[in-house]
Amino acid sequence: MQSSPLLLEEPIRMSSILEPSKPSFFPAMTKIVGTLGPKSRSVDTISHCLDAGMSVARFDFSWGDPEYHQETLENLRTAVRSTKKLCAIMLDTAGPEVQVVNRTDRPISLQEGTLLVLTPDQNKDATSNLLPVNFNGLSKAVKKGDTIFIGKYLFTGSETTSVWLEVSEVNGDDVTCLIKNSATLSGSLYTLHVSQIHIDLPTLTDEDKEVIRTWGVRNNIDFLALYARHAEDVRHAREFISKLGDLKQAKIFAKIENIEGLKHFDEILREADGVIVSRGNLGIDLPPEKVFLFQKAAIYKCNMAGKPVVVTRVVDSMTDNLRPTRAEATDVANAVLDGSDAILLGAETLRGLYPVETISTVGKICAEAEKVYNQDLYFKKAVKYVGEPMSHMESIASSAVRAAIKVKASVIICFTSSGRAARLIAKYRPTMPVISVVIPQLKTNQLRWTFTGAFEARQSLIVRSLFPMLADPRHPAEFSSGTNESILKVALDHGKACGLIKPHDRVVVCQKVGDSSVVKIIELED
């Protein structure tokens, strides 16, 4: 099966299906991004989420105020200290979002076959025949026959809580639509999406910029997620955060949500540090039969570029149920086999009834899929894509992975200061964990000394197979006759404590010695 992303060995694999999954310190090498909210903001729940496998906490600013999110973040920090598990912070901006405003908070029943008016006059109350929206240019953006979707929590797709509309008339600032399905809208805010239409709103709104320069700067966020339609959107965001002190270190993840982002994907990928495939939104803009094609193409391009890619909307039903559907379980596995670095959970952890169980279930599915991932096929594709001559760093990274697989190493240990070397190793999708040992660097602004490294360690928490640890700068980078307290020894001890390294195991180490990069194989004694 050399052409398949699956690596199955019959009949061994069939018989092993019934074997129970083995518990592990690392639930899976594929990472899980959890959105924290009403059902997942207590210290106890967050602690359980971290233990279950969440490595990145997402704060969604399309709802809630900064004070609310700050309280949640303080609880996260308490949970990190108690569990001793690193967790990165992702600030997800609201972006150019058109919303239905229901000031009354009363449920609104919409009947199939009746007419509904969308108006920019927010002074009017929302009714079954009229919905105010927060965008004055809607009537200029749409025309008769266009499709409009209104839903909540990034489009759950439920036909009872979201509605499809067809534009039947544009009258001044108002848009009259025919309701295509009966639904009940409950709550104060619903998101409105016009299929395949450009909405003339800035990628970073004034509200977004205020949140970034206050909440983002105060909390040293690791990732900034923003809706990207063009490469210029990413460049504009990078220019903005470059003036905000340490925040310039934050990695920018481009959310691809519509046809515009799809058309400009290649140039967006070149500018962004990573990509989020927002399948909920894409599932509205694209025909359903085309969504999987974009997912596979986007993940492949990100893999070849060595940039992390995150897939969303995988286990929606677990918002209200303890188990995923068969299709969802298969979908998670396919995302892993496609090459995803991380799975992003939205409503499932934000307002879902089972946030911890959802993270645990997704982690177990990812771990099973990783066991049959055809790394050999992927490795050959990646090497062929990079071509020859390889850069020095690419050559070292690919060699480390190939050596680790050939000698059946239990882990790869990579020494890095910027995180780049570790990310390059992860690009070649090793079948074993990579302990990324981040070496702190001393820097000064001529007023005080500071150490770098914390950002770089946390930012690897979204990259598949990377597990960071921050080295003590007082320890030398390799063994010497006069000390047992080397960073390498600490890394090996960490691997042993996690259950990754056992006596007589082989370990591949990638590090710099002077001006040279070295890959070496260590065989451990008792």
UniProtKB/TrEMBL annotation:
Its cofactor is K(+). Residues 30-359 form the Pyruvate kinase barrel domain. Belongs to the pyruvate kinase family. NCBIfam families: pyruv_kin (TIGR01064). Residues 394-514 form the Pyruvate kinase C-terminal domain. The lineage of its organism: Eukaryota, Viridiplantae, Streptophyta, Embryophyta, Tracheophyta. This is Pyruvate kinase. GO terms for molecular function: ATP binding; kinase activity; magnesium ion binding; potassium ion binding; pyruvate kinase activity. SUPFAM superfamilies: Phosphoenolpyruvate/pyruvate domain, PK beta-barrel domain-like, PK C-terminal domain-like. Keywords: ATP-binding, Glycolysis, Kinase, Magnesium, Metal-binding, Nucleotide-binding, Pyruvate, Transferase. It comes from the Eukaryota. Pathway: Carbohydrate degradation; glycolysis; pyruvate from D-glyceraldehyde 3-phosphate: step 5/5. Its EC number is 2.7.1.40. It catalyses: pyruvate + ATP = phosphoenolpyruvate + ADP + H(+). It comes from Crotalaria pallida.
